[in-house]
Every structure is written in C-alpha cells, then in structure tokens.
Amino acid sequence: MTKITTILLDCDNTLVLSEELAFEACAELSNEILEKQGISDRYTGPSLLKSFVGQNFRGMMTSLCKKYNFTLTPEEFDSYVDRELGKVIETLEKKAQPCPGVMDELEKLHGLQKMHAEKKYLMAVVSSSALSRVQASIKKVGMDKYFDPGHVFSAATSLDRPTSKPDPAIYLHACKVLGKSTSECVAVEDSRSGATAAKNAKIPLIGYVGPYEGAEQDEMYNMLKNDCGAIYVMRHWNEFETALKTVEDAVA
Question: What cofactor is needed (predicted)?
Fold first, then answer.
C-alpha cells in the first residue's frame, strides 16, 4: 500500500501570483532596449507574455532583435539577463501576493505536522525559476515559514546542470535529497511544462487552474486532466483537502 508522505509544490502561479509581475519587469527592460534602438513600440507585461510565451528573457531578447532587425553584443545580452533577475525580484518583493486560499491550506498542513504524526506531510517547493526569485516570492507573502530552506528546489540553481521543466530532473533531484520515492509524493502544478515534468517523474499530480480566467481556465483544466494525467484539478485552493484525499485513494 502506497502512502503519500510528501507534497511538492510549484511556486509561480501555484503558490504565488508571480508570472504577470515577472513579465511586467521583463517589459520594462524590453522597452528600455527598444528605446535605445530608437524603436517606438512598447510592451506591457501581458502583451509581452502573449508575444513571447514560453520563452525565457534571453529568448525574448533574441526574438526582439529578429522582429525589429537590430543586434546586441554578447556583453549586452549578458548584462540584460543579469539585470532581468534583479528586476523581477525587486518587483516581486514589492507586489507579490499569494494565490487565493493557499495560505489557509499551508497553515492547516503545518498544523498537522505538529498535531498528528500519522497525517504529517513533508512539504517542499520545486520550481524552474532561479532560487533567489523563489525565495523572494515566498518570503514576500509570508509562506517561507512553512518550508525548510533546504526544501526549496530550483531547476535553474539546484541542479549541477540547469534543466528546466518539463524535464523531470528537478523533481527527481528533490525526491533524492528528501529521501522519498516518487510514488509517495504528490506534485501541484499549474502549467503544461510543470505537469509534464511531474508526469515524466511518475509523481501523482494535482493540477491547479486558479490564476486562469474564463475559457482559458477550462482549456487548462482539460489539458492538465486529459493530457498530463492529473488525478484532480483544483480551480481554487479550498479544494485541496478533497484533491489530496482523491490522490491518496487513487494510489492506495
């Protein structure tokens, strides 16, 4: 009989509403680049996300160069990449908010650790983002108290060779460090890349679509459920107890 002992949580838009803020910071730097090139177009966070979805900041800059037919030196590229992380962290430290309802669920889980040995869950954060960005996010919203510093994992920072989701490397690394088998863990993810990473690591999955709206929420719900094999998909964190029980029943 398999027992779930460990909850592995994505950070961006799963624990903390950070994605739009990150793109807001990227938009500021992108607009600075365009201004220096004498180009009048400007981006907002949402328009940048729509135009360059799925790309990291270096990829966005490469796409900007191609779209507007200009070049940046390798030194300029590296300088902007370094500044981007700092700018994102600065924005998160000012504006980041927890996903609705997540603090209540983390507090309940934290309480179980103190009160009920048979219902004690180890909790960890498993993210593709840089460790400094993840730490800034969870500290700003006051949830760092729920996670041991050694239980916050970053695909960009924790691995010997940075390997982002959907590669399962960061999940497998986290399980190894925590001393847990993948079958006794459950992952909580909001995106295709993160859910695919959990699926490829053979970790039972809870999907979360709270940050999405309207038709997009329904599309993400179906994708996480049907394409990525989520055992349960939450629209709000107040469903977490039901989601966790559903997973535990499914793997028992």
Answer: Mg(2+)
9 and 234 Cβ atoms separated by less than 8 Å: no
- Report the run of H or E that residue 98 belongs to, with start and end: strand 97-98
**% the chain with pLDDT above 70:** 96
Q: 178 is written with which tokens?
A: 């925590």
Domain that holds residue 148: 6-17+97-251
Sign of the torsion formed by the C-alpha atoms of 236, 154, 150 and 197:
positive
1 assigned to some structural domain:
no
Within this chain, do residues 178 and 141 fall inside the same structural domain, yes or no?
A: yes
For the chain, the domain total comes to 2
- Provide the CB-side half-sphere exposure for 17 (13 A, CA): 15
Instruction: Give this prediction's pTM.
Output: 0.89
CA dihedral sign of residues 126, 130, 135, 140: negative
Q: Which two tokens stand for residue 60?
A: 């966005």
Quick: pLDDT tens for 40-70: 999 999 898 778 766 778 888 888 999 999 9
Same domain, 13 and 78: no
Q: Which of 86, 30, 20 is nearest to 58 (CA)?
A: 30
Separation between Cα atoms, residue 9 and residue 126, nearest integer Å: 6
